[in-house]
Specification:
The protein is α+β, with helices and mostly antiparallel strands and 251 residues long. It is built from seven helices and six strands.
């Protein structure tokens, strides 16, 4: 009887083994504690700089260029004034009747005397080169004998010549040039009639501020060259010295 009880007890132990979940030596991942969250990132604060940021000239030019290409409207007059200020040392331009230098004013004064029929050898020695060129709608002159004959001939043709108005359009050092507008009234000696001629006078000077080329454009128009007019202007320049006596220069 005791043997039978012992056998049944042993069979119960074999048929119902212990559950592994109850074993203290076995750990399941489902039962392990969750991992700890990382600590929050640290932040470092720096004090603001006391000095304000100053834009450099190159930065300003870059911004201006970007503004141009981005469609921002710029003031063209302000840009033009800045460019004129930058080039003022190399290129002096006068506006509103101003003259760029005292030498240019001297040339203008001498030209006024010539247009008013008061030519002198002092004017040509002071303000003209001997090989200078003079052009107007009636002649193309090269050299003192030819262009001086035109001025002395004008003094014989007109009893009076008066400058009604004159305005300097530009007076520059590079190139060395004067451009001005004038309104001149001529009174012819024989018939007594008067004629008013408005013209644009372009004067190119050399390094000594002497006239190299003078172009007198009547009405501001280009000088005639078509239909034989150029040949007639050349003939006038060659014939006039035979008819008009020109004083010799001292130098």
């Amino acid at each position: 009887m005791s043997t039978l009880s012992h056998t049944r007890s042993r069979s119960r132990d074999i048929s119902s083994p212990k559950s592994p979940l109850k074993s203290p030596h076995i750990h399941s991942p489902l039962l392990s504690p969750p991992p700890r969250s990382p600590s929050p990132p640290s932040q470092t604060f720096h004090a603001a700089s006391i000095l304000p940021s100053v834009p450099t000239p190159s930065l300003l030019e870059s911004v201006a260029g970007a503004a141009h290409y981005s469609g921002v409207k710029l003031d063209p007059e302000a840009i033009a004034q800045k460019r004129r200020r930058r080039s003022l040392s190399a290129h002096r331009a006068s506006e509103d009747g101003e003259v760029g230098s005292a030498a240019h004013q001297r040339v203008l004064d001498d030209l006024k005397e010539l247009f008013c029929c008061r030519p002198t050898t002092e004017i040509f020695e002071r303000s003209w080169r001997k090989d200078a060129t003079f052009q107007d709608p009636l002649s193309v002159c090269t050299g003192y004998d030819e262009y001086a004959a035109q001025w002395y001939g004008l003094a014989k043709l007109c009893s009076k010549s008066e400058t009604l108005s004159s305005r300097v359009m530009s007076s520059t050092s590079i190139p060395n040039r004067i451009v001005y507008h004038q309104k001149q009234e001529y009174t012819f000696a024989v018939i007594g009639r008067t004629k008013v001629i408005e013209s644009i006078v372009i004067v190119d000077l050399d390094e000594n501020d002497k006239i190299v080329t003078l172009t007198d454009q009547w009405g501001g128009k280009e000088l005639p060259t078509r239909y034989g007019s150029g040949l007639l202007r050349l003939l006038n320049a060659k014939i006039t010295p035979w008819l008009i006596r020109v004083p010799k220069l001292e130098s």
